[in-house]
Amino acid sequence: MEKEEKELLDKFASRVAERGLVPVTVFLLESIKPVSFLMSQFMVFFRPFVTVFVKPDLYDKVVSVFEDRRKIEYLLKLIEEKEESR
Predict the structure, then answer these.
(1) Where do the H-state alpha helices sit in 19-55?
(2) Domain of residue 38, residue span
């Protein structure tokens, strides 16, 4: 996993913990894990439309996270660690 991806996931995990959205986020991530690769392919298909509103680099990083279940697991661990440290 790239350094930039780790920084993005860490930032996301911190925001989730700060806002008290850990249970909802963990539930959603666990539920999409089985279809995460398929979801990433849909995201690739819709990239030309979405990148009008979102930075293309950021969008590509999010797509790469959903392509690999290990990255989702890493994100889940980060979120749980952030919650425990609060």
Answers:
(1) 22-32, 36-45, 47-50
(2) 3-85
Q: What is the pTM of this model?
A: 0.88
pLDDT in tens, 3-55: 989 999 999 999 999 999 999 999 999 999 999 999 999 999 999 999 999 99
The values of phi and psi at residue 54, to 5°, are -120, 145
Look up residue 51 and give its two tokens.
């990148």
Residue in 38, 79, 44 with CA at minimum distance from that of residue 63: 44
8 A C-beta contact, residue 43 and residue 63 = yes
Place of tokens 């980060």: 78
